[in-house]
Amino acid sequence: MNQYENAVETKGITKKFGNFTAVDAVDFYIEKGEIFGLLGPNGAGKTTLMRMLCAIMQPSSGSANVMGWDIHKNPENIKRNIGYMSQRFALYNDLTAKENINFYADIYKVPVEKRKKRIEKLIRIAGLTGFEKVQAKNLSGAWRQRLALACAIAHHPPMLFLDEATAGVDPVSRREFWDLIYQMADEGVSVLATTHYMDEAEYCNKVGLILDGKLISIASPDTLKDGLEGNLAAIECDNPIEAEDILDRFEGVLDASIHGVLVHALLKAKNMKENVLKALSSAGIQVKRFEFIQPSLEDVFINTVEKQRKLTHKVFTKGVD
Amino acid sequence: MENPILNIKNLSKQYQSRKELFAIRDFNLTIEPGVLYGLIGPDGAGKSTTLRILGTVIEPSSGEVWVNGYNVCDDPEKIRPHIGYMPQLFSLYPDLSVVENLDFFANINQVKKEQKKSRIEKMLTFTNLKDFRYRRARNLSGGMKKKLVLACSLIHNPRILILDEPSTGVDPVSRRELWRMLAEVVNQGVTVLVSTPYMDEADRCKEVAILYDGSVIAQGPPPELKASLPFDMIEVKSKPRKASYTALEKQEYVLDWRPVGDRIRLSVEKGKTREVLKSLRASITQQEAKIRVLRKTAPQMEDVFTFKVKELRDRNEPV
User: Fold this and answer.
1) For burial by CB atoms within 10 Å, which of A86, A210, A318, B275 has the most?
2) How far apart are the C-alpha atoms of A122 and A129, rounded to whole Å?
């Protein structure tokens, strides 16, 4: 095995498709044993970046090392030593759970003498004990997904790539899935994950926000949340649409957005509460509840996206796709 | 109090294929007009089954459902004009353009000819799809497809909008837009019933029912549900993580705990919070670990869910 300090290191890595820049001069690194999350809207460049790091796509320019190997010079070494699991993981439906794992162990060249023990361990880790002989097609969503993870790590890879690996899986099963990932990280496995789920991003040691191919910030989830300027208030009232409109124009309100029955308002200072309440009530809006809340990663994410889009002089119409 | 627009009494459903299993069991629910109501629960809890019955797609095994004063089983055709139903896997016509899809759904939902044009325009404006009106549905992005589906299910101006997991698999920007649009629909006086597996989305509803294993295990406005919990919450994060776990092992007054992201949330007996915080601090520091987070924190809907499920299990399996 290679000696390396950082599991991933990139320098100006860029990918262009014709005139379109999917990944734009990205610099970042992932420490060994770290769980790194890539967050971004659809089309931001997450999957393209990941594919280059898996050495299955060539960058247009820039360079990257994965586990000490150069993606240009040693793509085969990288491919052999990573685990990759995507939203559309491939399982053989007609094979049993155990046969699927055995198949992946085979193509990843797990030595025959070690294989039996390894497969037993994988079945235990993935919580598939008792289901070894069930055909993959007869397993439900969350079970299939754990089986797919077992297949992806059949060869004990020191680096794991998860591309929206938990899409469509319910929150309870997702939490169990992440318990597994944590166990692996504790054993020194490095992880790069993309996800749409903000609660999942909370599991990452570091989170990178990616937008229009650019990595616009990298920090721990706590640092990101602490870095949100202002105090977030959740307001429940009888007319959220009008309330948002008023708040949007209110001096000192940095941002206002509607969340179903709630309006979230980012206030420059907490002592603005009385004035905000006054403004709403003088417009005939009845406020049922007003409380300051902890911002979620989603709040930080959207806030950053809006700021960035304003910076790049793009008009951010609500709901750009 | 106004008459409920939706009234479900002792509803149960068993599918033919697995008769021994109840998809939903003895379900009761009343929804007042103009409310944004959430059906929250993990996969397999019975959310889709309930919504399919309300959408008059399948029939219940027993029980009654009243929509706008009509019985779902007796008068499905009287109910349909009042309902907009957006299933989880909705197939638009990929070869038709945005406008053609809207036109099609306007026709099958019997929108009057003289109103059709203005309804379509209204929906295009509402969903911000005006600039894409001639684009084929197959060439829309995932988020735009969802919006078109929403527009199609609202085209006939229903009084109730039923959405089955509209935010599943949607990126955060589109998810935020969706909840904004739902607020606008409610603002027009429409009753919205939405299902979701995400506990954090419960807070965006005026009232919720939490489903588990085919039954409603909690019901009410989210702030009330959270306030009703008979314990306080603490969150802790240490480096290394193990130190928190070790500290927890011998900690008194802790009722339950679970890892959330990189930290642990624990429920502690009311009135013991200070004591627990103090002793955790001592124990973690003693292990020469660093405390990153250690504080009392507000309960979340997920805490309500976890507690109710545990309560249910304890009741069913007496020690």
Assistant:
1) A210
2) 10
